[in-house]
Amino acid sequence: MFDLVTHPHTMTKLRSLFPLFLILTLGVGFGLAQNQKKGKKKKSYPKKEYYSGAPIKALIVTGGCCHNYLYQTFALGSGVQKVVNVDFEVVNVGGRGTEAMIDLYNKVDWAEPYDVVIHNECFANTAEPEYIRRITEAHRGGTPAVVVHCAMHSYRAAEIDDWREFLGVTSRRHDHQSNYPVKVTKPEHPVVADIPPGWVTPKDELYIIEKLWPNTTVLATSPSEKDGKDHPVIWVNEFGGTRVAGTTYGHSDEMFGDENFIRLLARSILWAAGKEIGAPVESTE
Ligand SMILES: [Zn+2]
Known about the structure:
Blueprint (H helix, E strand, L loop, with lengths): L1 E3 L3 H8 L2 H21 L4 E2 L6 E14 L4 H13 L2 E9 L23 E7 L6 H11 L5 E4 L13 H6 L1 E10 L4 E2 L19 E9 L4 E7 L6 E10 L2 E6 L5 H4 L2 H14 L10 E2 L1
Parallel strand pairs: 1-4, 3-4, 3-5, 5-6, 6-12
Antiparallel strand pairs: 2-13, 7-9, 8-10, 10-11, 11-12
Helix pairs in contact: 3-7
The site of zinc ion has 6 residues, from loops.
């Protein structure tokens, strides 16, 4: 249900959260048992508001500088699982600094087992081209991705543009933390279709977008409080035919406690993985 593939250092921290994970696992298990009782001969997956088909296999890659990744991962994972049938694996390694080369990316086919990879890592000063290309080439025409907040400032020191092309945006700095209004510019797009008009974020950072890549479609913007300029905060990209959904929000714990944000991530995961959102319950004989 929520498999944790973690570094030994993170396991120590995770022990305190274990009862919550246990409750989550038991909760889902209970739902399944109820469903089987009602479903008579048919085996069906637990009913979820956004997606109730066979579990999506998702990998969360997280760690590095500046944010509370253990909490963010738990909030994202448990929040999304309320509305989407998804199994998460988590790789939370690389320490708390701005530079790391993690073992996950050593293999060329590292992303192959997954339907979607969520990048929420933050390693701005890692710049080694071959290493970065092992990450991006697994996505180019390959596994879809959702990119969150500091992923946009990861590999910022790199001279090659591959990571930025994969993201669909180039950003190198952010404005101060504030409560930012989110203006949805493509309300018909499934990723943002559930964002209520007038949503104002919890305190979070506004990333300054200096460039949009050619295959990027902006779905929502927020204005800078310094110069009033609108910056994309939610978008989708096509990277060699592969879907990538991104948001620059996700700095604060408060944001990960916001239902609109968690639903945005849930819909981003589903859209990237090519699943219909809110499809009728699938059942198997
Ligand atoms: Zn941040």
